[in-house]
Request: fold
Amino acid sequence: MRKVFNFSPGPAMLPEAVLKTAQAEMLNWHGTEMSAMELPHRGMHFQEVMQQTESDLRTLLAIPPHYRVLFLPDGAAAQFTMVPLNLLGDKKCADYIQTGIWSKKALTEAERYGAINIAATLTKCDGLLALPPQSTWSLDEKAAYVHYASNETIDGVQFHWVPETGSVPLVGDFSSDILSRPLDVERYGLIYASAQKNMGQAGLTVLIIREDLIQDPLPGTPTLYTYKVHAKHHSMAHTPPTYSWYITGLVLAWLKAQGGVDAIFQINQRKACHLYDCIDRSNGFYVSPVHPDCRSMMNVVYDIHEKTLEPIFLEEAAKHGLVYLKGHRLRGGIRASIYNAMPEAGVLLLADFMHTFMKQYG
Amino acid sequence: MRKVFNFSPGPAMLPEAVLKTAQAEMLNWHGTEMSAMELPHRGMHFQEVMQQTESDLRTLLAIPPHYRVLFLPDGAAAQFTMVPLNLLGDKKCADYIQTGIWSKKALTEAERYGAINIAATLTKCDGLLALPPQSTWSLDEKAAYVHYASNETIDGVQFHWVPETGSVPLVGDFSSDILSRPLDVERYGLIYASAQKNMGQAGLTVLIIREDLIQDPLPGTPTLYTYKVHAKHHSMAHTPPTYSWYITGLVLAWLKAQGGVDAIFQINQRKACHLYDCIDRSNGFYVSPVHPDCRSMMNVVYDIHEKTLEPIFLEEAAKHGLVYLKGHRLRGGIRASIYNAMPEAGVLLLADFMHTFMKQYG
Reply:
């Protein structure tokens, strides 16, 4: 195992087995003497990559047949525009749940294309950041859709329940927690997720969309921002980011070999517990700003009560091979992003380090 | 050297040295014990990749300081929309030169956003495909810009001269020939090129844009389709396709080591000559549909006079390690794409094979 653990929020750590396969195949994919990077997208070789990747994703998330899977270029931020352009339709209005910077960015972009209702916002409970209970949401039954972010990476806030939106399609940004826990696809109209946290490298976004929502977009929508075009061409309307697709395929195969989503969920829960327990038992040396009901299993955000210790913490941690632990520039503090690929050993090492650091400076 | 030569039009062959570096560094980029794929885009490590890549591109193409270089996600097809959205401005009209399927796609998309004048189209000369001489172009001096594709991959037609557009900015799609020959950047307002032919892997597009052309886009332009946004954020408005950027960096370093653009141009000219000579000396067994004045140095397109021999040609060629030679599905025939990374040895092997095949079946 590598001796450096990268706690970056994304692009993030990848499974060592995936990197080793990519390394071994770099000049010779499946005996072709070509790199996966060199395979033309319409050739029989890449077709194999495509089909296997979609098939594995369908298996891992039990995606029903009336949902289409699209592999699109660029990151999830492009979806902040594509969702309203493709889903607003004649209704021209949508509900957004604002629980952090990513959902705020999504709704700010959507406001350029329709009437956006902020149906609920991040709140406080016992002085801690908390998700608004569904009972407080002001949903509009005439909305074209309801949008929310399943996990907010900057504050480390995560939904541990699925919003109930009746007949209004629910759109979920799962960029930072897809495949980390079971997901009931049928509760959603559209799920989107960029690849660089739990599914591969940056530059690819996966969509899981209910077929009936693939409609004509608003006038003026760029051709390559149109779901209908990508669906019609099976994500091949133009040259797709082939190598990113290949890497995602390797990640999905790895996840299947780990026992799938249920198995990784058990590990992810343990990993998060190691860190939150360490924080909660630190007698206030480490402070979590998030209410226990909505703490993120993917991004463990915390502060050191004595802020001047934070740069020292980061510097010392790096000496132990624990890198990229600095909180987001808009928030500061410490953030340990522990996606699927972060081994439990890395999290245990961080918990040990936190304990030792507290003893030394507490 | 690998024994398989991939003549695909893109994603295409990459230099073996680049793949070997990528392989060696896969689990340990520059001693970090992290893959380049795992580096967070705002961290100091990736900043090094970014800066070196831009600096090498500037050196290779002698890009003047008043031109910005942008590294954008997705392929060049996204530019078919972004160019009109960002450059049409108040003038609302532009001139397009239609010389093949790519420039046709570009203008079809542009027509959705403004008044597009097709100033010239592909023509015939001595019964062969030919580029329209500039004297026949009907340019509009009030156009916001003039757009053309420097090389058309499907028919194998290439400009060996630079259009003269006076004070109207010239926009060039150089996706399939950037860095293959010298380029006088100052003749252009905007140059764009996707990476997967001469610069790396699919999913990245490089823009070289004169600073004064970075203006407010048309209303409703998606935020991530806005040049101004990408320029302001130094191509970091959101998570960029980091690994694609890294691979492009390796390709540029390799090109510098080959002696740069002038040196590769010499090799590329020789490579193209090997094949066109073979065609021209075949007494009509192989037929080039393109006038010698505008034959592509990157995509050598030809037919076998007896069409029924083509499937046999492709099958036999593959047995010799010469793969992906089939012409585009819209055109048929044979196409040998011989970008910078195709070794001269691969081209000589193909020329030998063509000669032997002709002897056997001619």
